[in-house]
Amino acid sequence: MSDPAPPELAELARLDVPADAVHRLAELEGRGQARPFFTSDLSVNEFLLVKEAGFDPRGMVFGSSIYHIGLQRRNWGSNMELEKLTQAMYTARELAMARMEAEAEVLGADGIVGVRLDINYYDWGKHSAEFIAVGTAVSARGAEGTWRNDEGKPFTSDLSGQDFWTLVQSGYLPLGLVLGTCVYHVAHRGPMATAMQSMSNRELENFTQGLYDARELAMTRMQDEALRLGAEGIVGVRLEEKSHFWGSHVIEFLAVGTAVRPAPGAEAPGHPQLMLPMDT
């Protein structure tokens, strides 16, 4: 009877990670070779700073999910969240990130730095998109397991190599890349209201309130993810707004950042150091 597959390989199979990915990861680990090697999408400066922070790159890790995004009816004259679309965008990103994290587990990594989340559209369907998560898996030298989050998973972070070095030097732990999303329909104005407002300066209250509500929903969901990880705060927050293929009155608001907390026994951060980029 054959030996059972290691837990991390079983997780890859459960998440439908292709066999070629398993072969690629085995090569990175050095199975059948004199020693392992790594791949990385970090710039040279970022690579050196990640090494300086006490981490060794293990390899680029990927996650992908091609997802069909269904239709949802909306009220032409009302501000409203399109919850079905919100859930689709969230689930597709989570699938991609889970597969990326599973690849990092196979490499025995403590975390993933420089994570990028992208969406690609192809010719096979207007309502289908590929959600991609890409980053560089890293392992901490001499501190196995210390850097994993409370869920026992490798941390994820979209910070640059420079920001990651500064965070670690300041005594903080990255816990995970947290996100919140909201797909929102912004109400149309009727012909009469448009005509009456065309000659005057005034706030468009329904537009203001709609966008305000949508951003707040995305930000709150991002914060809730960070709290579940036991974070003290979120750094590097980005707010992105895209209409994708839904038209001008339907917008996705995406809030993304890296959840952090102080390392146990860490001293208070020192004074900031001036850093000049070398590639300008």
How would the blueprint of this fold be written?
Blueprint: H1 7-14, H2 19-29, H3 44-52, E1 55-68, E2 80-81, H4 83-106, E3 111-120, E4 128-140, E5 155-156, H5 161-169, E6 172-185, H6 191-197, H7 205-228, E7 233-242, E8 250-262
Parallel strand pairs: 3-5
Antiparallel strand pairs: 1-4, 2-6, 3-4, 6-8, 7-8
Helix pairs in contact: 1-4, 3-5
Written account of the structure:
The protein has about 280 residues and is an alpha+beta fold. The protein has a single domain (about 5-260), classed as Translation Initiation Factor IF3. The chain has seven helices and eight strands. The protein has helices at about 5-15, 20-30, 45-50, 85-105, 160-170, 190-195, 205-230; strands spanning about 55-70, 80, 110-120, 130-140, 155, 170-185, 235-240, 250-260. The strands form two sheets. It has a four-stranded mixed β-sheet. A four-stranded antiparallel β-sheet has the order 2-6-8-7. A hairpin with a 7-residue loop joins β3 and β4 (about 130-140). It is globular. The chain starts with 6 loop residues before the first helix and ends in an 18-residue tail after the last strand.
